[in-house]
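[Automated response] Your request has been received and processed.

Submitted sequence:
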Amino acid sequence: MSISPNIPSPEESYGYETPGTPRWISVLFGLLIAGLGVAVYFGYTAQARLSDDVAKQRDQNKILSAQLDQANSRIADLKSQVEITTQRMGLTQSELAKAKSRAEDIRKEQQTADQELTTQLKASQEQIGAVATEVGGAKKDLEATKSDLEATKGKLDRSMGDMNVMSGLIAHNRDDLEELRRRGDRNYYEFTIQKSKHAQRVGPVQVTLTKTDPKRSKYTIYVIADDKTIEKKDKTSGEPVQFYVKSSRMAPYEIVVFDVGRNQITGYLATPKEGGTPAPAAAPAPSASNTPTTPSTDKP
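Generated structure:
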């Protein structure tokens, strides 16, 4: 219950309109998923190209093997012809030595061709291994990108605030808050507020913690903004606690509490990038005896 009686609602005072869900979130995730699809397409294209190269290399190896068999057959035929010729024509020892020398030359030429073929096969295998490694690395990068996207989607979500306004992305711990800061969509002010009668400055506003219930993760605070004191009673950790200020007509300020302790709360204040007015001077929290009975329209 607020201590300020007969205060009109933020919409009546300033003509606010509660915005719908921002479309840029859906566009951002659409772009990320589209980029992931393009990367997957190129990965599969590289794998198909590798399969074609392997098939062509196998065909070339078969051709080279067939040529090697033919050369060996020619050597055997030549040797047989030399022996037959020697027997039929009675070649002299000198002519026979020449024939043997020629056969030896042919053998050496064949060995050189075999070595070249082995070198070509080895080079082809190394090339295939390099392409396979590149494709494997691309797959790992795609999997890592997909994992990061899923992890980010799992950590950051949205929910309805206590003023029935869809909140921005909500952080549930300091790591999530750092991710929101890197996005730079809003201004973020982290705080740890002790239970006290005096208000504590949090960014452009003042906050007083009056009650905590660690077992139920609930708390009660007073927010001082635009010379008004707004009570947020029995709020739950992780719940977007919303209120409007004059400098932010299109979107509310949001307080999200991570942890409710025995005498303190820890969380953050999120404000639109358009900024906010300076906080008023700190004031003690209103007591039950001087709290007006007329409910304030600032309280949801």
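Summary generated for your ticket: Confidence is low (pLDDT under 50) at residues 13-18, 275-283, 287-300. Helices lie at 10-14, 23-89, 93-155, 174-183.
If you did not submit this request, please reply to this message.
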